[in-house]
Amino acid sequence: METLSQLPVNASVGCGPIGPYLELSDRGVEMVIAEACARYYGPARFDEELDIEVTVERIGHTSLTNSFAVSKQERILVTGEVRYVFVDVETEQKRPIPHTVREALNRYVGQVQR
Predict the structure, then answer these.
(1) pTM flag (> 0.85)
(2) Among the listed residues 26, 32, 41, 28, the one whose alpha carbon sits nearest the alpha carbon of residue 12
């Protein structure tokens, strides 16, 4: 079974349940970050192993909202939320989320993925 942990923090180069990002772009659709926020609770060092949990919070008509938590040894270091808006590559205008993307992500709404 696929998990959202296959979707990297930088979706612009990644692959996950929605498929390779470049294929989405080739079909004329881009995901842009419309809003992002993070709250920091503690530091992490470069070589430390971190746990990242991602939850699809909401799938709207043209946007997708994910929340995340970063922890080490069960201590929360960062929490946050990112809202992506789907846009047409040529017009740069908002557009509905493609059916294939919506279908692939619907099963993850409200579920924490590690």
Answers:
(1) no
(2) 32
